[in-house]
What we know:
CATH architecture of the largest domain: Orthogonal Bundle
Structural class: mainly alpha
Strand content: under 5%
Shape: elongated
CATH topology of the largest domain: TerB-like
Order of helices and strands: HHHHHHHH
Number of strands: 0
Amino acid sequence: MPVILAILGALFSGFMMWMIWGNGMQVLNAWIDARSARAKEKRDAQAIADARERAARAPLRAIQDPREAALVLLSKLAMLRGEITAEQNVLLSRFVTERFGFEGKPEHHTTLAAFAARGAGEADSVVADLTPILHVALETEALDDLFRMMQEVAALHGGPTEAQERMIERTKSRLNYREPEA
């Protein structure tokens, strides 16, 4: 036991001498600085990623009108097949004037909706951000009309894709929507 204590005492004494008279403090300070720099970089990278995500979803969070929310949902549904085609744009423009009753140029409304939908990224985030507005504002007939419009958009160009079907089902589940009985 005294031998072990002597060895430990010698190691501790050597460590303390290295810290005081050697370059131990510089090594220790360099290690602490490098560790705090890595932690700061990680925090900064997370803050930048969060800010970018908030900025991308800002147009969705600014939407208060359920008609605009429905138009963004329809635009995102069309984008799941790729870029919005001319046929899809014509259909969305027709919805803007005939079913939503927006005033002004329909291209203005469809462009803004496409901008908001494109910035959000994933279809699930669009559904998650917009369904609370629709859930509060829409009655059963309006929900039926919304899902008919979603089916029309998805049916263009050879029927709905798997991603479009998933988005429609996700929207139905978020809105607690049940198909009307025939």
